[in-house]
Design a protein that fits this description.
Blueprint: H1 4-17, E1 23-27, H2 39-46, E2 51-57, E3 60-65, E4 69-74, E5 79-84, E6 94-100, E7 105-110, E8 116-121, H3 125-132, H4 145-152, H5 160-165, H6 175-185, H7 198-217, E9 259-263, E10 266-270
Antiparallel strand pairs: 1-6, 2-3, 3-4, 4-8, 5-7, 6-7, 9-10
Helix pairs in contact: 1-7, 4-7, 6-7
């Protein structure tokens, strides 16, 4: 958490609200968040630069600036951007503060300090992302069931839940949306990939695209600490059917009671009746 829908929501908001604005000041209360520059070098590079684009690859935000530099930002578990009309009171979770020419303030906060910011030259970003080995974007029009099948074939020995969480298989899907997609498609998370039939792959492909699209439309899920850049929670959490529902009756009406187990170190939720 955050996963693709939450990061995509933040990307869209930054594109609409911040792109075109100029950074006029930077402070870095938590320098460890910067993985490639010192605080002084980071501030020097950022001051005077306009944000010209906000992109996303997998769970990574890519913020392009007029000086030819790009910030790669991973929110990890509790990272978030917040945009305000005035300088906020000092918070211990605030790691970077960007003062904007419009008079607004954009902060990057992270309670657990797991998130990171890397600065790269914009023309080097594509190579960096390629080296990271991210799989295809599940909401890309070119992400077909056949493409999905070919990616899964590279992870044939894994359990399907673990394959979905592997960012080299498919990009952006995390714990919440893996559980939801498997519930929607009727596939048990412990199934081995090589035991999936063609019909299973097609059903799961459709479920992933459906669930992610709905979650993006609702601004993501605030299962824990996620907030958008205006401090609002996502609206998809109440619509989750599997994640966090252990001990409740399955919404499919099949008489199943949702269970939870740890799989690959992650809490996993599923219905033992309709998920096979």
């Amino acid at each position: 958490m955050p996963e693709l829908p939450e990061v995509e929501t933040v990307r869209r908001q930054l594109a609409a609200a911040v792109v075109g604005d100029t950074i006029v000041g930077v402070t870095v209360p938590y320098p460890k968040v910067l993985q490639t520059q010192t605080s002084a070098a980071f501030a020097k590079a950022m001051v005077g630069a306009d944000m010209v684009a906000a992109r996303r690859r997998a769970k990574v935000l890519l913020l392009d600036f007029s000086n030819g530099m790009t910030l790669l930002v991973h929110l990890k578990m509790t990272g978030r951007f917040l945009l305000t009309d005035r300088h906020p009171e000092q918070r211990k979770e605030t790691e970077v503060v960007f003062l904007l020419a419009s008079g607004r303030v954009l902060t990057f906060d992270d309670v657990r300090h797991f998130g990171w910011i890397k600065m790269r030259r914009t023309h080097e970003v594509a190579r960096y992302l390629e080296e990271e080995g991210y799989g295809p974007e599940p909401l890309d029009p070119l992400f077909s069931a056949d493409v999905f099948r070919s990616r899964l074939a590279l992870h044939s020995g894994k359990r399907i839940k673990q394959a979905l969480l592997d960012q080299t298989c498919i990009a952006g899907v995390g714990n919440i949306y893996a559980d939801e997609s498997l519930w929607e498609s009727g596939i048990a998370p412990i199934r081995r990939v090589h035991r999936l039939r063609t019909a299973d792959v097609v059903a799961l492909h459709g479920a992933i695209r459906l669930i992610l699209s709905r979650a993006v439309a609702d601004g993501g899920s605030s299962a824990n600490d996620y907030l958008d850049i205006f401090g609002r929670k996502g609206n998809f959490f109440p619509k989750l059917q599997a994640y966090g529902k252990d001990g409740t009756s399955c919404a499919k009406g099949d008489g199943g009671i949702l269970r939870k187990r740890v799989l690959g170190g992650r809490g996993t939720h599923w219905c033992p009746v309709h998920q096979k």
